[in-house]
Amino acid sequence: MLPVRDIAQPLCTDASPDSQKPGRDSVQLAHVICHELAHAKGLRHTEMRNVRYGWADGWKEYYGWAPKYAIAVNPEPATPTIEDRRAQPEA
């Protein structure tokens, strides 16, 4: 029988300041994205009992590359003020 993932653990970061640390939950998130893309390819859970798509032993090692990528929200681009627009030379 395959081990069951603790669903109480979040898959992505929350809004707290310390949650923006690089790599936090990125391993689980990479795995879930791959799992859901497998569904998009037409695979069923019975076909996903492996480290690539399922929660089989070794899945964390398989997605060991994921902590190199930070999960963060991109900041909204700054909207130039009227003064900024007036200061720009006309083209």
Word description of this protein:
The protein has 91 residues and is mainly α. The protein has a domain at 22-69. It is 27% helix and 0% strand. It contains 3 helices and no strands. It has helices at 26-40, 59-62, 82-87. It is elongated. The N and C termini lie far apart (68 Å).
Walk me through the topology:
Elements: H1 26-40, H2 59-62, H3 82-87
Q: What attributes does this structure have?
A:
91 residues; mainly alpha; 3 helices; 27% helix
TL;DR of this structure?
With 91 residues, the chain is an all-alpha fold.
The general outline is: elongated
Q: Please identify the structural class as seen in this structure.
A: mainly alpha
Question: What pattern of helices and strands is seen along the backbone?
Answer: HHH
Average the pLDDT over all residues and give the rounded result: 78
The major pleated sheet works out as: none
Proportion of beta-strand residues: under 5%
User: Could you give the count of β-strands?
Assistant: 0
**Gap from first CA to last CA:** 68 Å
Please tell me how large the radius of gyration is.
20 Å
